[in-house]
Fold:
Amino acid sequence: MAELISPTAFADLFRTFERSAWRWEAQGEYHQADEVEPWQRWRDGVPVADDLAWLSGWLDDVQSATRAGRAFQRVRKLTDPLTEYLRWQMEVTPANVEAGEEIRLLPDRVARELGLPDHDFWIFDGGKVAVLQFGPEGLTGAEIVTEPATVAQYKSWRNLAWTAAVPFDDFVKT
Structure:
């Protein structure tokens, strides 16, 4: 039986994981409350590099964790063409990478060929999966999965995505 947790309880997972946090990011757009204003400022022409205060808590947490030897990794599925949100995220991503997060990118076409899921999830320490739940206002919670066979399926998807995806820095050079 999977456990449903709140966004607050989900956020606590980032303070308690021991070795690794890995994300499959499958949506072309998110509606997180803390992103609404910075995304609009970007639309209004404010350069992302001048407007990262809203992301500083996450970047500090990533930097602290990676300095302590814990890994943050994600693969972001890219639509073709990119949604406006993903274009904005492509400009935000260098700050994540600089903080220590390993981010790779995977075209939607390849994700479909590999049979990757359309829902977002995190894998913590290789044994706990958080399947993210979203509503019109963004993240509403997560379903925590620890059943070994189901976790193995998610780890298989992780391995497929990670192997096929292109590191962010290599992607932007092409």
In short: The longest helix spans residues 148-164.
